[in-house]
What does this fold into?
Amino acid sequence: MHPEMTAGNERGSSGAHVLFATWLGELFDGMDASIYVLVLFPALSELLKTTDHSQVGVVGSYVLAIFMVGWAVGAMVFGCLADYIGRAKTMMITILLYAICTGLCAISQTWQELAFYRFLVGCGIGGEISIGAVMLSEFFKGRSRLHAVAFLSTSFGCGYLIAAVLNLLLGGLGWRWLFLAGVAPALVTVYIRAKIKEPEQFIKVQQIKKVSSGKGRSHFGDVAGFTFLKLFNPENRGKVLVVIGLASTAIIGYWAVLSWIPAWVNQLTGTNAIAERSQTAITMNIGAILAAAFGGVLIERLGRANAFRFAFAGGLISCVSMFLSVKAFGPMLLGWVFFVG
It folds into this structure.
């Protein structure tokens, strides 16, 4: 085993188990997050009892925005919770939350019900993604961490790919069946419960907290304080704000642009477009998976800052070119979405 992958092994978890568990967790994040994107138009058309694209689009944006608020809330709440009850336990809670609530989306009778369930799905997904990244950083060190995170990044695209295939297979039965399929990720918690132990670093911090509670904080510095507030202390504030800016740009770009592509395909074809939406999503996520898989190599060659510039510029050019040039569903659209991915 690589020497940089041994952190946490004393407690029984190998880097391979942690990587596989976090990859599975984010794989199903991608699947459950993307189901709504794929069925946005048919689902809201039924709930709103209209096929008017402008009306569906407005309400669709409300539901999507509520989902993203849930994502942010979940990342903060479960991120803090993981510092107190443990990473593995919290990850299990987040996966159960987004899996069960994705299933509940299938019984929605109004768009407000759907939005509420999607808020809870967002809470679970936001929590799982943040905790997964933390677990990897605690188990992998140095150069291996870069490639572990790059491999983890393929998972979201793989999840969206699975959602697209499910849409191809189940779309004819109706949009509710796809949400029911979103309950499947709950099974991942069985693997996590059996294979994943808490990182050694977390165990040591918990031990220090127990001792410090009896001796006063002055003996142990700021270890016993509320962890969320430490993000914005003078030492961390600048770096945290830069990361928030970069991450927000990527997330807003993804959900404000790419989430509308399946509904746009409905508009381009003028039909329910089950096969066309699926083909578009599959093609885009093949591009996403390939790029993520080589992300570590790209960062090693270009450096972190230039890799960000390259990816952001590529996304901007591809999206603008696609929306300006594509007027109908066909090979041109599929070619562009590959590069967008």
Q: What stands out?
A: The CA atoms of residues 77 and 124 lie 10 Å apart. Confidence is low (pLDDT under 50) at residues 1-12. The two ends are 33 Å apart (CA to CA).
